[in-house]
Amino acid sequence: MSLKGSLSSSPGSANGSLGRADGAAKLSAKDLYEQRKKYSNSTIIMHETSQYHVQHLATFIMDKSESIVTVDDAIRKLILLNSKEKIWTQEMLLQVNDKSIRLLDCETQEELEDFPLPTVQHCQTVLNQTRYPSILLLVCQDSEQHKPDIHFFNCDEVEAEMVHEDIESALADHKQGKKIRPQTLKANQEKIKQRQSILPPPQGPAPIPIQHDARGAGVNRNRVAPPSQHNPDYERRSSGSHDHEESRAILAQKIEKETQILNCTLDDIEVFVARLQKAAEAFRQLNQRKKGKKNKKKGPAEGMLTLRARPPSEAEFIDCFQKTKLAFNLLAKLRKHIQNPSASELVHFLFGPLELIVSSCGGPELARSVVSPLLSRDATDFIRGHLTPKEITLWESLGEAWTRSRAEWPRESNIPTYIPKFRNGWEPPVEIFCGAPWEIDIGHLQEELASANGSPYRSSSLKRGQAEHSQAVEAFKQNVTQHVSR
Asked: Compositionally biased, Pro residues: which spans (predicted)?
């Protein structure tokens, strides 16, 4: 249930939206630098042991019933899965020593697999045939296996050729009693040092926003402040039309920023759904391997599959539910500004993953506990007007925290402001959320203002709201073009 409807605006970071369920995106120079720095301690070459950061892509059994008789058959299946976006990566560490190839959990260093060198039947690279350009392939079979396994790893930190040379030298030394691996390790070490010496430097920090004092004047923060609106020269140059143009530009920027937030939200939901799909597929494969086993001893490839089958934590489920609610709010707010797909189409897209997520955590109880963010009145009205009967049933099963708007929520309720944290590291402006309609109790404010002012509030505020909305639409048409980028 992959979301195909992320919008055109990229997030406020250079790398843009993830675009794919497993996060295989083109990285900016800064992102690449940070990623390589993060894993610089993962790629280690010592006297007899080398270690590389890799991403496990898939494991196939060489089985005629699966139409995999040769290595080329397995490669073709990987390419087919890649074309259908059915590959989900799993980070791990690959260690090579003079006795075995080990796979470790990146976080816990727990051993997932240990392939003694005599069980490694074949090793090769698969280059530039999928969106993962540098793949290492291993064929392994121990004495208890009837059929060999074919493992695929994406080498994201060093070239697959380097890991391949390392493994081949270890195999040659083990089979023939030679001592060629020390030279191979030395050469690889030099390559890694050379690579690290030419890492692209990080880009400069993001521009510091101009701070304003109480009078609205720009405060210097190593940036050129705009001319003060209280400056007489500025006032003489300004005109009504100029102010109108400026306000339209500000509204257009706000729409653009909210669209970026929506894109990041959809990306994170899509990544979470991909994790659920990866876990479900790994669990299925794990059960297949365990069928008919007479002992409980962990079999080959079961360590990797167990890691892949590990479900997200409760906190991660809650985070995804919160982002789904945020997406509903943003779709309602931006519904007149986005198209192809439209906001209503994206609502339907979201209910597919939402159903999967709810069923994956055993029912709607956890979703019911997710109060913040509440939905705006626009969002609840918009959802009610566009859902199918099946979607309505799911939505209503999630409880009042999803179906009652912020204006309908008890006034005394202390609901914390929801500030999302995105997977790509982008931090959106906090003020967008603090003043959002789903965070402000609009209904109660209207009642208080109406009683204080003799009820002229509704008509005047409606006219003002309509004027602001018209300005926003016009600004959007002139300054922002939205379309689907996927």
From this structure: 199-208
